[in-house]
Design goal:
Among the domains are: about 270 residues, no CATH class; about 60 residues. The chain is flat. Helices cover about 45% and strands about 15% of the residues. The strands form 4 sheets. Strands 4-5-6-7-8 form a 5-stranded antiparallel β-sheet. It has a 3-stranded antiparallel β-sheet with strand order 3-2-9. The longest helix has 30 residues. It is of the alpha+beta class and about 500 residues long. The termini are far apart.
């Protein structure tokens, strides 16, 4: 009989994380029902079965469309697959001292971009942004593809659990999923399975079994370089009966888990736009239901039927209802319904605008919905930059919890695969910095460009009155900072221009 003592520790850890998640999962179920019916996976969901959308409560899809706009905007604005969204740099002194560093960094960047474009990472990121917009938390696993490159697996709310360290950083991940005995044999090997599942692999049985996967900091890391001790993080697969299916590890944390915002460091999961507008979404559904009831009563009102009516009332168009009588109407409306549909539509549209504002839909559709066509391109760009600054705190968190870990994880995998050339001797062992040049990153940097230009214009105007002031204003520094805000290198400034 296999010793399952170590697995009991893993089960306790997983159960503890799941218990912490319980209060969050209740809200996620509501968010899934009202804002993202195709997302979310909870214990009542059977494996490999489609979930039906509850159209009794979901009568208006505005929230889902707003979340789609946000996710598409984040995708194109932060991590667009069609344009460069990051650069690799070292300190300016090292760049100047070692000319070959620039070429090496460019080659590494191109290799990273090629790997990302050939993998399914960008497809997973689109779903990642939908998850974080609605549920406030999103997670995906970046695995090494042994055929070369990387492979991403996106998870949905309710499918995984997370744990944090003392600094509030996510360092533990767990999930439960379903496999048949045959699938477990192909994944973990025949001899890793318990006797009952070994026998089941020889049968035509498609019964699913729950498998647990847990990734956590390796307590034995550094105690020799043999076996699993060489990994910074441990990875274990096990069954509920205590059977350990596989034990391994990762050199860096392989899960990219990000939160939209957290109230404090003790919160493991985050809150996003979907949380803030859940009340508005519920109100919108109620208003749509009220409108439908009003329309129904207006076109098919309740009726009063005279006692002289013979048989049933025929309410079909052109239908005939026979009755005995000369004065009393056989069938007439019980009461008159005259709903103010225009007022109701205005109220509904107001709630829709509120929901779109929560999902920052106006930020990403500004150029397409511009209601002042007389504005110049510069004025449109300035307004767009101002709106982008609203996302500043969120984008800073995504930089730390999504972009940095993603680039670092892919870089480390390619380095171990031998897909990246060794670094020049002068920069080996030194920190390589990632600078983001996406559309949103540039818009944020350019937000202060107008102020910088106003300062330069003021200095120029004053210098015309007093020429001595011109030498006291550093126009070169203004140029360098302006180029940086536009996402351009300060190296474009020539040291000694030829006359």
């Amino acid at each position: 009989m296999k010793n399952n003592q170590p697995v009991k520790k893993y089960i306790r850890l997983y159960d503890g994380l799941k218990q912490e998640r319980a209060s969050w999962a209740e809200v996620w179920k509501e968010l899934s029902a009202y804002e993202a019916p195709a997302r979310g996976c909870f214990e009542t969901d059977a494996p490999n079965r489609a979930r039906r959308i509850n159209h009794k409560i979901l009568l208006d899809s505005s929230a889902g469309l707003a979340a789609e706009v946000l996710s598409a905007g984040m995708m194109s604005g932060l991590t667009s697959p069609s344009r460069s969204w990051f650069d690799l740099t070292v300190s300016p002194a090292e760049m100047a001292a070692l000319p070959e560093v620039s070429g090496w960094l460019h080659a590494v960047k191109r290799r990273l971009e090629e790997t990302l474009s050939k993998s399914n990472v960008y497809a997973a990121l689109h779903g990642f942004y939908q998850e974080i917009a609605v549920f406030g938390t999103a997670a995906l696993l970046i695995e090494e593809n042994f055929a070369g490159g990387v492979h991403a697996r996106l998870f949905t709310a309710g499918e995984y659990v997370l744990g944090t360290d003392g600094h509030g950083c996510i360092n533990t991940f767990g999930r439960e999923f379903f496999l048949t005995a045959k699938q477990m044999e192909n994944t973990f090997g025949y001899h890793a399975l318990p006797l009952t599942l070994q026998q089941e692999t020889k049968q035509e049985n498609t019964r699913y079994h729950k498998v647990f996967h847990l990734i956590f900091p390796n307590e034995n890391y550094g105690r020799g370089n043999k076996g699993n001790n060489r990994f910074t993080y441990s990875s274990v697969y096990f069954l509920a009966d205590g059977t350990l299916l596989r034990s391994g590890g990762y050199y860096e944390f392989p899960v990219i888990a990000a939160r939209w915002e957290v109230k404090n460091d003790s919160d493991t999961y985050g809150r996003g736009p979907g949380w803030k507008c859940l009340g508005d979404v519920k109100m919108l559904q109620k208003m749509q239901k009220t409108k439908l009831v009003a329309l129904d009563k207006n076109t098919n009102p309740p009726v009063m039927v005279s006692s002289n009516v013979q048989g049933e009332v025929n309410l079909l168009p052109g239908g005939i209802t026979r009755y005995n009588g000369t004065t009393d109407a056989a069938v007439k409306p019980a009461y008159t319904v005259t709903p103010d549909l225009d007022a109701l539509d205005r109220a509904i549209e107001q709630v829709r605008r509120m929901i779109k504002a929560h999902f920052f839909a106006d930020v990403f559709t500004l150029l397409n919905t511009q209601d002042t066509p007389q504005m110049t391109a510069a004025e449109v760009a300035e307004r767009r930059e101002e709106k982008m600054t609203v996302l500043g705190p969120v984008l800073e968190r995504l930089k730390n919890e999504l972009l940095d870990p993603l680039v670092r994880r892919v870089f480390c995998i390619l380095l171990r695969q031998g897909e990246i050339l060794p670094a020049p001797a002068g920069v080996r062992g030194r920190n390589m910095q990632v600078e983001y040049i996406s559309m949103i990153a540039q818009a944020q940097k350019a937000a202060g460009l107008s102020t910088l230009l106003q300062g330069a214009q003021l200095a120029a105007e004053l210098s015309s009155a007093d020429p001595s002031l011109g030498s006291r204003f550093n126009y070169r520094r203004v140029l360098e900072e302006g180029l940086e805000k536009l996402g351009l290198s300060h190296l474009l400034v020539v040291e000694n221009p030829s006359k």
